[in-house]
């Protein structure tokens, strides 16, 4: 496939909330391969603040943003992202997506189809996948093989207070929608594709989730997740076990900003090379959306 030289990708940012302000906007503005060209958000004053702080222009409409950029980065709730990202792909714009990529499987599949039809690059901000510690752990797990099980625990108080505690979609979807994609993605990447949800239980008052999953090849894994526990710092534990013993993930390094910078490195390579395949592209987002849907169906 032909290689297309790209000096600086002009990116438009959709959203002006805490995640957009702290990660997306500064990351796009500071990365050597991208230029934050435009910001659009539901609240014009918020878009203007983010744009001003990062050397970009606030625009009045999504169509105006599309007319001035090569790519679009989204930092909005999944239900909003799905429709707008379809329009971006139809306009020939590369996309950086948040997780989950949509609110339903049908929406996710429609988005993936449009991305494929347009031939644009896509990446999903599965933050931990772009950190050195996780990449090293996964490389070791995969090269060793022989794992028959795994477990994940992610416990935080993020919905009790702090910058993300006022996010309606996070409260509506809870831990499954917010940290679920990250958790399921890592277990899936380590043990093989998740092929079924054997059990799902949620303690409603605490939004405490317990899952039992099956993976291609016969491995099983368990998940415990909650964002309403008064714990500080957040507890994040991942491990696999099998014929070679027990191997846990020591993921002490890396910040969301550093992970986003690595993502943008990969994004630039996808665009310049013409290769649209990546372990964290839109099709990964569809797979995770299907697992989330299977959890909800199992829960009944």
From TrEMBL:
This is Putative dehydrogenase. It comes from Herbihabitans rhizosphaerae. Gene3D superfamilies: Dihydrodipicolinate Reductase, domain 2 (3.30.360.10), NAD(P)-binding Rossmann-like Domain (3.40.50.720). Residues 9-121 form the Gfo/Idh/MocA-like oxidoreductase N-terminal domain. Keywords: Oxidoreductase. Residues 166-245 form the GFO/IDH/MocA-like oxidoreductase domain. GO terms for molecular function: nucleotide binding; oxidoreductase activity. InterPro entries: Gfo/Idh/MocA-like_OxRdtase_N (IPR000683), Gfo/Idh/MocA_oxidrdct_glycsds (IPR050463), GFO_IDH_MocA-like_dom (IPR055170), NAD(P)-bd_dom_sf (IPR036291).
């Amino acid at each position: 496939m032909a290689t297309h030289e790209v000096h600086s990708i002009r990116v438009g940012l959709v959203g002006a909330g805490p995640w957009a302000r702290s990660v997306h906007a500064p990351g796009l503005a500071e990365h050597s391969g991208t230029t934050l060209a435009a910001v659009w958000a539901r609240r014009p004053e918020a878009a203007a603040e983010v744009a001003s702080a990062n050397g970009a222009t606030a625009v009045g409409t999504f169509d105006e943003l599309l007319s001035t950029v090569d790519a679009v980065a989204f930092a909005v709730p999944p239900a909003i992202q799905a429709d707008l990202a379809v329009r971006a792909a139809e306009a020939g714009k590369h996309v950086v997506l948040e997780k989950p990529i949509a609110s339903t499987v049908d929406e996710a599949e429609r988005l993936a189809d449009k991305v494929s039809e347009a031939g644009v690059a896509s990446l999903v901000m599965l933050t931990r996948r772009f950190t050195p510690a996780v990449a090293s752990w996964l490389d070791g797990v995969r090269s060793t093989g022989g794992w028959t099980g795994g477990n994940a625990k992610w416990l935080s108080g993020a919905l009790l207070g702090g910058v993300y505690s006022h996010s309606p979609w996070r409260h509506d979807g809870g831990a499954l929608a917010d940290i679920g994609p990250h958790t399921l993605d890592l277990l899936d990447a380590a043990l093989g594709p998740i092929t079924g949800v054997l059990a799902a239980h949620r303690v409603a008052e605490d939004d405490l989730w317990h899952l039992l999953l099956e993976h291609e090849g016969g491995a099983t894994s368990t998940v415990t997740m909650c964002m309403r526990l008064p714990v500080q710092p957040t507890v994040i534990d991942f491990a696999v076990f099998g014929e070679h013993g027990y191997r846990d993930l020591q993921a002490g390094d890396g910040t969301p900003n550093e992970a986003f910078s690595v993502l943008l490195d990969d994004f630039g390579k996808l665009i310049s090379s013409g290769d649209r395949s990546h372990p964290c592209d839109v099709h990964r987002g569809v797979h995770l959306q299907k697992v989330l849907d299977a959890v909800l169906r199992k829960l009944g």
